[in-house]
User: What shape does this take?
Amino acid sequence: MIHTHADVVGSLLRPRELLQARADLAAGRLAPTAFKAMEDRAVDEAIALQERAGLETVSDGEMRRLSFQSLLPEAVDGFGEWDLNAFLWGEWHGDERVGSQEVERPKALGVVSKLRRKRHLSAEEFTYLRARTSRNPKITLPSPSMWANFWGTERSVDAYPTLDAFLSDVVGLLRDEVAELVRLGATYIQIDAPHYLLLLDSQMRAFYEGQGWTVDRWLDQGIALDNALMEETPGVTFGFHLCRGNQGSRWLVAGGYDRLAEQVFRRIRAQRLLLEYDDARSGGFGPLEWVPEDKTVVLGLVSTKIPRLETPEELGDQIREASRHVPLERLALSPQCGFASSVVGNAMSLEDQERKLRLVVEVAGRTWG
Assistant: This one.
């Protein structure tokens, strides 16, 4: 099992050269082989950054992904037309630096035929990462029930008459992916599940309920689908990441974990809960009382949304406050989310990003030795 007290959520800022290469590939100005070399170089740099910072667990920075979610429709036929906005729609809130932004849900979005896997989703990411670091390689997968976003009565019912039928196939694909990752030697797999907290927002809740499930059923069924990915995997640590939206230094919803904690914290099979706690939007630490004794809480106290560097003292105070609810030995520290949940990335520099990662390692060393 993974016991590190300094963790990383997954995504890192894409280098400017990689973003330009992606645009050139789409425009036909760059050959796929040349683009793949650019991707490899960006992953190498991401690994080196994390190792310099002192992290024991490293990701590939999700450099090969358009979004943290995009690996599924990129590898599987049947999702129909989609673009980056398929993952970004909603009313995004930001501070005076970035402002607010509303992104409409694409009108053509919707699964249109039975899902058929063309290739594995993340096997390339994992094998490349594993071969280039002596640290613990971490890979992330999207939570199954968040794909409800891709089902709708207008386009999807010929292929999948019900949401349940569609999500059953999504779970099957993700279970196969977990099995392949385990076969390849993965020992730390993170499930990203931001949609649970989206249920706190009335607009987002109305959309999800419009898909046919009540909020209580979303929690019950969603947890069951997530748990299905974690069955029969001895020797593998699963992380479960909950956040409130992370894009362009903006966020989607505010609210504490109170409404979700009893069901999610107690029932999810993951051994590590990676929780967003970077500002007042996240509420207090009280809901941590629901965390069972067999789980570690990774406190996402270091913001990936703002360049300001937190101080070791303020992070130490927050860790001590959290330890009133969960014993210190079952706590860990990480950034609050990824630095670039999609190619858009958050409004900070590569230097800011490195300072934040170094701070996570420094404070973890001070706190847990």
